[in-house]
Amino acid sequence: MAEKKNYYTIETDGSLICQKCGVPLEKSNAVFSYLENAFPVELPVCPKCGFVYVPEELAMGKVLSVEKVLEDK
Amino acid sequence: MKDHFKERNTRDYHQKQLFSKEELEARESLCVHEQPPFCSAACPMKLDVREFMAKMAARKFTEARAMLERISPFPEILAHGCHHPCEAACRRGEAGESIDIAGLERAAMFLGAPRKGKGLLKFRKKKKAAVFGTELFTLLVAAQLADKSYPVEFYVEAEDADALLRLCAPFLPPEAMAREMARLGRMDVNIFYGSPVTPAFVEEKRKGFELLCAAGYLVQEAPDPVTLLGEDGILCAPPASEDDGMGECLRVFYDARRASVSADRLAQGLDPSTMRGEEGTVTSRLYTDLSQTASSFRIPLPGEEAEGYGEAASREASRCIQCACEECLKGCVYLRHFSKFPRILTREIYNNAGIIMGDHMMNKPMNSCSLCGQCKVTCPNGYDMGEICRLARENMVDTGKMSLAVHEFALQDMLFSNTEAFLSCVPLGREEPCRYVFFPGCQAGAVAPEAVIRAYRDISGRLEGGVALMLGCCGAIAKWAGRREMFAEQKEFLRQELRKLGNPVILAACPTCKKTMEEEGLGRVKGVWELLLGIGLPGEAASEGGEAVLHDACGARNDAGMREDVRRIARELGFTLLPAEWTGDKTSCCGYGGLVSYTNRDVAAKMAEECRKEFPEAPYITYCMACRDRLARQGAQSMHLLELLYAAPAGEPPDISEKRKNRLLLKERVLREFCGEELMPEEMGFAGEITEEARRQIDDRMILDTDVWKVMKHYRETGEAILDQKTGLLTACRRIGNVTFWVKFTEEENGYTVRGAYSHRMTVQTR
Questions:
Q1: pLDDT confidence of B544, banded at 50, 70, 90?
Q2: ipTM rounded to 2 decimals
Q3: Same-domain pairing of B459 and B515
Q4: B11 interaction partners in chain A (CB closer than 8 Å)
């Protein structure tokens, strides 16, 4: 499948560690969904257990503003 | 029970009209803000006198002059000849003397600079016009048609321009005459002076002209009263009618304007009676509040050459009160915040409900109204914007367009009040049904639990017939959120609980609870204030008294009895009540009503500020716990009557987590003290604390500490968390309902220290 558009990408630098698996998070494909709308993104994800990390700046910034836009649709 | 918290799909394209067209128009017509001021309504030339006065007052004489030049080709003739029915209609006249509109029009013509340049390039029209006869009407029509770029030939008996103007406007003083003569000279009218104008002459000359106009003495029959077009295709002035209040000169200007509209229609090949718009004078329904208008009298305007003419004109124009109905705005932060009058707001909210796909731009405004009903009282026509906003919310909920995020926290809080924190109990050992049930309201338990328990102790000890206690929410939150089904469920729940108690008389301490329970027929409701006045104030009632403002609750807007009761109690407590204007049925909402404090914190803060505007330094007495809380949050010293009556000051306003904890603790204490039951609080099973900074942050982000602990519990069970090596903080998360909560913490030997939290509603997963 062709590479899909990503709405947002967070680069990882190895400083984020999955506490459970003990491995650094890696940039990986993830998808945000809200009110039946989906947004493919690249977020830090644990390569072992698949835990997706949403940093505070993203949650309180971009994610919040997109939520507000969708809420008025 | 229906799951009320299922997220909607933005692709559900339901739509329901908010009102029928008739209902919309009926509602909108109540708002008179856009009605013309009385002076303009009385002017058939439709001069915006209010705007003219504003310009004159600001010494923008040239702009004011341009306004007069726009409405008539010979503004000085009009200014001198018109007998100004606008002055009789001027509302200023009711407070002193009406504005000298005639004098100011002449002043504008003298003080304002003439228009520079020739204006827009106009192409000459193909249809040609011929105008016959010497009278003001024909002069005006000729000038107007020339202004509309018709080639005009004007045949007059007068020998020259001077004679023509003298015949048409004999009342014009010499200086003005000279100026109007120059104006005539600049007009693109081909004037044939000294023409032998007779009906035969008209017949002979009319060939080759599409548009014809003649003086009254040249035509036999009266023209159509609306179009002024005669049978013979000639436009002419109608015979002088009975006095219609306009006076002769103004009537001729008005007739000439109508004739030129007819000429336009004829030139376009249309029926001249079509598309004429609203002509003539109108009746204005504008409301003008004169209660604050001090009486004043005309400032004499000196002659044209005299010094200080401009100054005097400006001062005279400043006497104009700029009639406008802004009654609703005066006390309403919400309307002022969105800078919209109810009619416009209603139309936009109505259109918002009609949007099937796309952004609902009016969701926020409709959710920012406190539904407090103040506008219905302040509007001279009783415009009820609150009801419209509530109906609009219901409409959006019904069609699946209301975002759950907007009110979810408040609705969950209501459910918390009526499940986990709910209590319906009778005192231990009582076999008979109680005659009363004390219903303090959800916010009382949340903000001042000590006052509630003392009040219950006092009332149940002094009242014959037994007093039960019910801690819960009346359901108003669901009603405000537009969630009708949830409201009905809560109502039914309360109905059943009251039935279990044997339907006692409800002693409501909260005005909104009282109002809601009365309106919904949940039983006989009595205000606790009325009861206390009846049985006497409690022994511990004590206060230092002093001056205070009694802030009326919006829930008591239609409850004059309750408002009187609380005043009596406040006075008995030794308070001197300060005379506020925005009080009684005109009171402003504190920002809790309509859930504004959840949906639009800025507006809610301004609302609380508005409640304090009259006496910013004075202490406030309230009888609604939400008012008490919001005013205190805004920095006021506010005290609920229960706190004063039972000497139980609740202190600083609690945060959202403390409000929940207070309700649970109150329930525990009541059960222990009055029912002999011991509730075992749920143990967390681990130790943890939240730093001060984190506590402020989570409160601001509407995150409850119970949610934080749920995340931590999840972390303990799964071990899932992210360690940020740069900060040394761990971050764990858990989805609870529709929200994903993230908690930043450190793990120490003796437990966890929460250092921050955030949340989002989106879900996230790998792909």
A1: confident
A2: 0.96
A3: yes
A4: 36
